[in-house]
Amino acid sequence: MNYKRCIDVYDFSVSEIFEIFDLAMRVKKNPLAYKNLLNGKALGLIFEKPSTRTWVSFDIGFSTLGGHAIYLGPQDIKLGVREEIRDVARVLARYLDAIVMRTFSHKTIIEFARYFAKPVINGLSDLEHPCQALTDYFTMLEIFGDFKGRKIAYVGDGNNVLSSLLLLAARLGVDFSFATPEECLVRRSTLMRARREAKRTKAKISEFHNPGQAVRGADIIYTDVWVSMGEEHKSSKRKYFKPFQVNQKLLSKAKKDVRFMHCLPAHRGEEVTNDVIEGKHSVVFDQAENRIHVQKAILIYLLGMNA
């Protein structure tokens, strides 16, 4: 049996993405209608990194669908250290129905998935954060009703969140601009991949190194931390980001009703000022809430329970 997976945002076609969005909306509006849908199912959460939203939203989301989730943290399973990844994957495939993985290396998820012959979900890796990006576009769809004529602007580090947002914009045909310091670029292979997809979908992808240029005419301004988890040794790179702070001055360069998004956790006073994240333009906590709804939809879809 070939199982669907959510390791990369391109694991889903456009029609599948909108099917997941529609399901997430229905789950959000009437959660009790789905409370026993995954009764008897078991989900593993293998996390090499700390987590708040990803852990809680998947754990509670799966439980409220009637399933059982088990958390396996850094001290519980040391993949590739205490035991080979392929051995852990094949054993857990006999216990569990699906796995969520939050790893330092994307290669770890790919290797695990090769031997775990069931749905695998990328809860974050150094390459992508697909569940976050899917949730963010779902939140935008809630706000605007559709993506036609909308522009998304990302300002900050060329990290895994930007990669997934960029790839998904190209797949959905959404105009996307981003500004990063020249010293902190998005992966060139990811950008090339997005540009190839954008040619097919007519999305407009624009790269800048000046935040003001990137956010001009934007409906959404998005940012993330300047130094990601696991990159604390790279804290010196903060010096490149001072012009990239999202503040009222930068917001004023976008549309008057621009929305501000952040995947959290936020370092207030660094990548975003307190008055922006707490201000009228912010939809940060709507994003955070929607993680649980979208991830419940992903689980239902991957486990084939969306009839």
Automatic annotation (TrEMBL):
Under InterPro entries, the record lists: Asp/Orn_carbamoyltranf_P-bd (IPR006132), Asp/Orn_carbamoylTrfase (IPR006130), Asp/Orn_carbamoylTrfase_sf (IPR036901), Asp_carbamoyltransf_Asp/Orn-bd (IPR006131), Orn/put_carbamltrans (IPR002292), OTCase_ArgI (IPR024904)
Q: Which residues cross the membrane?
A: none
Q: Where is the Aspartate/ornithine carbamoyltransferase Asp/Orn-binding domain?
A: 148-302
Q: Which organism is it from?
A: Candidatus Danuiimicrobium aquiferis
Task: Show the GO cellular component annotation of the record.
Answer: cytoplasm
Question: Which Pfam families does UniProt cross-reference here?
Answer: OTCace (PF00185), OTCace_N (PF02729)
What protein name is recorded for this chain? Ornithine carbamoyltransferase
A Gene Ontology biological process term: L-arginine biosynthetic process via ornithine
